[in-house]
Amino acid sequence: MKIYKILFFLLLTTGITAQTKVWFDTDIMIGMPDKEAREVDDGITLIMALKQPQIQIVGISNITYVDYGYGVINKILNWHNKGAAIPVYKGSAFANDLGTENDGTRALYQALKKEKLTILALGPMTNIATLVKNHPDIIPQIDRVVICAARTPGLPFNPGNGKVNVFDYNYEFDTASMDVLLHSTIPLEFAGYEPSSYTHIGKIDLASLDLTNDADKWLYDIVQPWMELNERYFGVRGFIPFDCSTLGIVTHPEYFTYYENIPIKVTYKKNDALAIQPNKPFKNFLEVSYKFKSQKKVKYARRALQGFEEKILETLRVKN
Fold first, then answer.
1. What is the C-alpha end-to-end distance of the chain, expressed in Å?
2. Residue 259 pairs with which residues in a beta bridge?
3. Dihedral Cα 72, 191, 107, 172, nearest 10 deg
4. Measured CA angle at 279 (ends 273, 285), to 5 deg
5. Which among 187, 193, 238, 293 could disulfide-bond with 144, CB atoms 3.0 to 4.6 Å apart, if both were Cys?
6. What pTM was computed for the model?
7. Hey, is 308 helix, strand or coil?
8. pLDDT confidence tier of residue 257, bands split at 50, 70 and 90
9. What string of DSSP letters covers 133-193?
């Protein structure tokens, strides 16, 4: 009887302490000086990820605006990472050089040689596709790539009041790299605009941040111009935290509904975001549908359930 109790205890404690080991690849731009405010969801997602006991970030690579991103990632780590040091590497600077090695791809290759990892891909796929293209031997070490992209057919990306459609940035910025992943054997999971559209963060949601705390004050101040920009374009003061859903299907999978093993393919059709892409009357779309005959099948998050938005806010309130 004692041996069974010991085994039960070991199983119980193993379940409690087990972590998903994650490589974090991001096009983080939070707070970057520009003509207009830049998106903040990558930064919020990194803060959230650092506070989740369910995962362990073993490394971070960035893509586009890599010099600024390198600095802001390390700033966030200095505030919020209370565990082992997490190395940060610069990746593709412009997301247009598929196949060209960089510090990020080299570091990710070495990390995967040591252990299997989940890759959380929050920007264009250039870094990940370069790794896969140049080192197909490493593919069995990739548990899955979790991506912020894709849609169901006919779904416009129209946040807020729906008057302006936006485009699938992470896919359209580097379609060639996404094609590499779509033609690989790597398990792919998608959580982009569609599930994220069920979440929204406004000014009141951030009222519980501690403005006497340097990290919280920085985040609160950085988010305000982004909220103002969203109000100007979409009629709502606040924003959809897209990348939080991508992280969420790893850390809180029970808060989403899914299409399992759904075919994915690239379609070519009339552009639905002409207001911001006036020179593209037609373009490629990355879509999922059970009607497709494509061989590649993926897991696709279709909705964030009630409660996930509060999980985001609860996590931001956690003090390290």
1. 41
2. 300
3. -80
4. 45
5. 187
6. 0.93
7. helix
8. very high
9. HH-GGGGGGEEEEEES--B-TT--B--TTSSS-B--HHHHTTHHHHHHHHTSSS-EEE-SH
